[in-house]
Design brief:
Pfam families: AAA_11, AAA_12. It comes from Rhizosphaericola mali. GO terms for molecular function: helicase activity. The chain is an alpha/beta fold and about 950 residues long. The protein folds into 5 domains: about 1-70, Beta Barrel (OB fold (Dihydrolipoamide Acetyltransferase, E2P)), CATH 2.40.50; about 100-295, Lambda Exonuclease, Chain A (Alpha-Beta Complex); about 400-500, Elongation Factor Tu (Ef-tu), domain 3, CATH 2.40.30; about 505-515 and about 545-770, P-loop containing nucleotide triphosphate hydrolases (Rossmann fold); about 780-965, P-loop containing nucleotide triphosphate hydrolases (Rossmann fold), CATH 3.40.50.300. Helices cover about 40% and strands about 20% of the residues. Strands 24-25-23-26-27-22-28 form a 7-stranded parallel sheet, with helices on both faces. Strands 16-17-20-19-18-21 form a 6-stranded antiparallel beta barrel. Strands 1-2-3-5-4 form a 5-stranded mixed β-barrel. A hairpin with a 2-residue loop joins strand 19 and strand 20 (about 475-480). The longest helix has 28 residues, at about 155-185. The protein starts with a strand and ends with a helix. The model has no long low-confidence stretch (mean pLDDT about 95).
Length: about 950
Amino acid sequence: MRHIFNAILLEKSATQITVRFTEDNKIFTNTIDFPAEFISSISLAEIGEKVHLLHCLGENEDLFAKYVIIEPDFLLDISSIAECIHEYGASPFFYLYNRAKKRANTRPILLGNAANFFLDEIIHASSIENISYNNLLSAFFKRYAVDLSACKDLQDKTQEITFFQDLKLHFEHLYSLVTDIFPRFNINRHAAILEPSFLSPQLGLQGRLDLLLLSDDRNVIIELKSGKAPFPENDYHLIGVNHQAQSALYQAMVQLVLNIDGTKLDTYICYSRYGEKKGLLRKNNASDSFIAKVLDIRNQIVLVDKYFGQNKILPERYFGGINGANMIEDVYLDTRFISNYILPPIEKIGKIYTSLNPLEKAYYTAFYKFIVREIRACKLPSQEIFAHAQSSLWLQNLEEKKADGRILINLQLLSIEILDNGAEILRFQLLENLEKADFRIGDIVVLYQYNLDTDCSICQQVIKGTLLKWQGVNIDFLIRNKQSELALPINALFAAEHDYLDSNNGFMFQSLTEFFQLSKERRRWIFQPNIGINECKKLTHYTSNPLVDNVLLQAKQAKELFLIVGPPGTGKTSIALHNLVKEIFLDSRKDILLVAYTNKAVDEICRAIASITNIDFIRLGTSISCATEFRSHLLENKISQCVNRIGVQNVLANCRIYVGTLAAIQSKSEIFKIKHFDIAIVDEASQILEPHILSLFAAEDFEGKAAIDKFILIGDHKQLPAVVAQDCSEPLENLLIENGWASLTQSYFERIYRQFYGNQQIIGELSMQGRMHEEIASLANQLFYQNQLQCVPLVHQKGTLNYLKIPDNDLAQIIANKRLHFFPYSSVEKDAVGLIANICATIFELYQLNQWTFSPKKTLGIIAPYKDLIAAIRKELHQLGIADLNEIDIDTVERYQGAQKDIILFAFGIENEKQLLQQTSNCIEMDGNLIDRKLNVAITRARKQLFLMGNERFIGQNDIYVRLLELI
């Protein structure tokens, strides 16, 4: 028996496929028989698809493959595949249906959360005798307080009583499982690994198990289910077919990843609703035929999405596949259960496309394809973005990863800190000197043990987390799920690589679907927002700037939508948003939702509003992503003293201002069931993709009405837009172009600005900037803003440089006497890194000589285009031995948007035509002028001095760059 990996499909028939593959550096062509269960996906597959053939039996030309995996490098979550398999039907279109469904907050979902929580706490308890239901119930309430308080089911007294009765029942059964059944099964709870994650490109799968026990003689998988077992419930051996599918795929994946003999791996379903005598633990024995059927569904899901994104499947067929006749077997269609509970929501989503007018259909289809392609771009390699694809974890070798700076190895685990919310901080020491490191704070990663050269991410458990802190050789990671001691042995060596999260793109599918289920009246937000003003409204709080006051008045008088355009340094957050919130908060009893795209911007919003008299607000998000000074405002801290749901509801209802990232709000959408908002102010709106912002337009309150009445969007379309992974060259349908769409990566903010350009009932523009000295501001002003930017002026914008003590060398003389300067170099590697370090050291020396305070986070910042260049600069600075220089921010221009420093060093980092093309790819045309949005952000971050450096040979090939150097 053997496996054939990376084969290419050449021919196919009803029972055989012909493939080409390489083995031992030789190319082979074989015709291989396959099981009948794979006929659907193989019929769908095009010639040229990549396939894996697993468990091949026979010899030479006479081979039979037990499993055929099509496009195996596209990993699908096992749980999402399993939910396509039901007693009443199996179809890949359940995947499309489930993906589009609104995330529910129901009694069964909460019971499932509770069961998982109870099992985790019981397994991890240091002393199981001290575990009690009341203690765990209190802890569960704190963890899920908002979900419990917003759950509509629990508003019904009868359901509320049975819910808490069921909670106690689940606890008792799980306690019995661990204390009574585990010992009889020779399962040591201390050796159990909870929620381990695995990646399996062999099967095209990824997943996180509930519980795994590994030992020399016996291995056990337990999957926890809190719902009902299949009918009839008095047959205590029955397992739901979707649960069979899920546990069978987990077993197949674990066998392959960990190379475990199938005879030594048992898989169980734990139905925590039932006691031991009624089938609490049920063994799953799935046949090869059943597993093949489930894997065939997996193949179909991948291919249907792929071909739809490539315009090979028509929307009518793609969306039309979501219907009962296609997804449910005929024999079940007319049954009462199917007719009353299963069919209606399927038909509701399935009919969305056919209910739309031609423009809406074009919009819905275009953005749905866009999201599908975005997911593929994040998972699969391309020539342009190979290193950013999830599959680079196994497709690149170690040397390639090192060359790209995409892996950290020889990370020695020093200690583990457990946080109050159950998350953990892993503290490592980096034992290896890195040539390149393409990592930065906030990156999501996969960690895995790396004690041998053969260790990798697809041959063991992986741990998912976030890079939290990096100082010298000390690196901290925050991991999302509590891990067993067995998974994290102290002093063991680990590797870290970049990870990819599906959830952000998943929210866009849900937003699209929810939005197009709204009434036609509410759907006009996209196509023709209601323009108008209420002239009766007047300002009650004025600023010192009449131009700002005019924009604030316009925003207040606008009926439903208003855009505030703010060029760099015009105080979009510190002035416009601050005074808007002040005006609304002090002049009315209105409730306000404040939204931004990044956590950094949310912290700035908190900073901007904190000084308003008597203000209080709730910050959505986690303590790790929140600035220290605002952690007391975090939702979890605001409700920490609440002992029941009424208390939580009162806290949430009485607070008038909520602040959070769009992602945090999407993940806590239960808020809208408790709180209605009169107005939402969205900062960084020009960085938000249109499907993302639809989630706010589609939000509904507890009465099913719009949860937000009015929107004020703040941004600057001449600065950087949202970052996407895919190649965006796909042409738009003419109907969309004719109605104002230029690109699917264009933000809603920019599109509405272009559509209503010059209309002061919906657009207000800020023009007074207080950030840059007038010499620095003149660059962007002449290049991109048609000289409309004006200085406030503040003291630092008009004053002269006043370095009194200056070292006697050319570099110090330039820095001490020039606001703007360009340093040429011929090689990034040989010249730029050292030059930057020398400039930083000289600036630090000047501050010391003149007895000025050097603040690492305010005085100096460096912008560089690539993470490996950033790592090289940081390494060079570290070698200077100046502690303050180790703390300065060095980042890409994308991460610098919204930031400012007294002095900015900007390295173009361009050494070839390809890099030049990449650096200048973010250009748009406005008013007949070409706007380089990336350059615009880079040259507008400095308050007092701006130093640029680059290779003139390549910079001179771009007209905007040439004009920039002429202005300097």
